[in-house]
Amino acid sequence: MKRVSMIKNQIVENVVRVEEGSNWNPDGYLLIDTTSRPEICPGWTYVDGSFVEPVRPQSQQIDFPDITPRQIRLALLSIGVYPADIDAALENLSEPEKSEAIINWKYAIDFKRDNPLVEQVGAMIGKTAQEIDDLWIYASTL
Question: Which of 37, 40, 131, 133 is the most buried (most CB within 10 A)?
């Protein structure tokens, strides 16, 4: 399977998964393989062969969906962050926050973007708030 961005009028309107070698090509869309670019999601622009991230004003609040453990782990894996990387980051926390974070990472039935631990662990693995937002949106499509 590959990840394909559907572009119309220079705007990424959707991101879908298609079989390798598929001839699927809906009318009116430019299809670009973005398998290696998991951060690209609807709202990005595609100009002169390059993707451009949308600029979101700080005042713009996004209503992020809750995501499942499977979704977050697959999204992290797509950017080269393995479960062991998260485990190692959590080990660097102080108690009792460390134990609480490990329990949540291992046993949560969903993850919420506004949980302060998401931002903290994201920073620990070198991700900005914007990168976490983009990854969260991507994860919600899996």
Answer: 40
